[in-house]
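Entry for the shared binder. Reason: the reviewer on the internal report wants the predicted structure included alongside the sequence.
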Amino acid sequence: MGARVIIIEEPENHMHPGLVERYTSVMLDSLMQGVQCIITTHSLELLELLLDTASQKELLDYVSIIRTYRMPDGDVDYEVLKGKEALEELSEIGGDLRGP
């Protein structure tokens, strides 16, 4: 049996920009095979591409974005956005899903 969870830190830093589109497509396809992919990123472009590709593949229900915040007292808090909610915030409101 292959990997069931894949964790990748900032993939945009380790690959050619032209491969990022293919990467997001393969990552989303793996969801349908029961693989959970966890990525960390500071790239708004990667998030946009991921959500757009998930929308095209009708996989937004399988995507969640976890946005973290550093609170004024130094604690870290987070917010979980489902794929559709994240795409709406990104495209309609122009929100930055990477957090403040």
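Summary line for the report: The beta strands are 5-9, 36-40, 64-70, 76-82.
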